TrEMBL record:
The active site is at 108 (proton donor). Belongs to the GART family. N(1)-(5-phospho-beta-D-ribosyl)glycinamide binds at residues 11-13. Pathway: Purine metabolism; IMP biosynthesis via de novo pathway; N(2)-formyl-N(1)-(5-phospho-D-ribosyl)glycinamide from N(1)-(5-phospho-D-ribosyl)glycinamide (10-formyl THF route): step 1/1. It catalyses: N(1)-(5-phospho-beta-D-ribosyl)glycinamide + (6R)-10-formyltetrahydrofolate = N(2)-formyl-N(1)-(5-phospho-beta-D-ribosyl)glycinamide + (6S)-5,6,7,8-tetrahydrofolate + H(+). It comes from the Bacteria. Keywords: Purine biosynthesis, Transferase. Catalyzes the transfer of a formyl group from 10-formyltetrahydrofolate to 5-phospho-ribosyl-glycinamide (GAR), producing 5-phospho-ribosyl-N-formylglycinamide (FGAR) and tetrahydrofolate. The keyword Transferase applies. This is Phosphoribosylglycinamide formyltransferase. Pfam families: Formyl_trans_N. The record marks 144 as: Raises pKa of active site His. Its EC number is 2.1.2.2.
Length: 203
């Protein structure tokens, strides 16, 4: 049950996968971690846990397609059941998304369809929403737009700063994301016709 995880930064979500596997809450192994940034702290987390790492810097490629091709080839050598975007801050081309169609997950720090894109915590505060949170979704060609699998939320009223809000949302993410991966690897959820299906026989 191989997973490949793509990161760009701190990798706290990656850490939640490492921990969930150790605690036997997630029956999987992380085949590789790939970062588009050489200084991503998540690479150290991977190395400390004997997980192979790759750095593929987008600046070294002339086009998005060339970068995505290298990325896809690197992932495919591990033949993963699941590809997890965990704070991976690059928009992926339709060609890439199609290769991993139905087995590519992303986590986005908002209650989608609210606030696709950046600065989600500030935007939620500015809008004085009642709730804010995070969403795990299958990736399709539309940015932050694929079918939503699950969301975790909190009440916004007690927060006034985006920084503390981000911290709280990330704590929710660390519980949510490995759970969704476990559903997927247990064949409890599939993507079909741009929707998510929960397979009743396995629940
Ligand atoms: C997460 O909050 C995720 O929702 C967003 O980027 C952040 C990544 O954090 N896409 P980390 O690198 O996993 O710590």
């Amino acid at each position: 049950k191989n997973i490949v995880i793509l990161i760009s930064g701190s990798g706290s979500n990656l850490q939640s996968f490492i921990d969930s596997i150790k605690n036997q809450q997630l029956d999987a192994s992380i085949a590789a971690v790939i970062s588009n940034k050489a200084d991503a702290y998540g690479l150290q987390r991977a190395t400390q846990n004997q997980i192979p790492t790759h750095v593929i810097e987008h600046g070294a490629f002339e086009t998005r397609e060339a970068f995505d091709k290298q990325l896809a080839q690197t992932i495919e050598q591990y033949q993963p059941r699941l590809v997890v975007l965990a704070g991976f801050m690059r928009i992926l081309s339709p060609t890439f998304v199609n290769i991993f169609h139905g087995r590519l997950l992303n986590i986005h720090p908002s209650l989608l369809p609210k606030y696709p894109g950046l600065h989600t915590h500030q935007r939620a505060l500015d809008s004085q929403d009642e709730y804010h949170g995070s969403s795990v979704h299958f990736v399709t060609e539309e940015l932050d737009g694929g079918p939503i699998i699950a969301q975790a939320r909190l009440k916004l009223a007690t927060f006034s700063e985006p920084e503390s809000l981000q911290k709280a949302v990330q704590q929710l993410e660390h519980q949510l994301y490995p759970k969704v991966a476990a559903w997927f690897l247990g064949e409890q959820i599939t993507m079909k016709d741009n929707g998510v299906y929960f397979e009743s026989k396995k629940l």
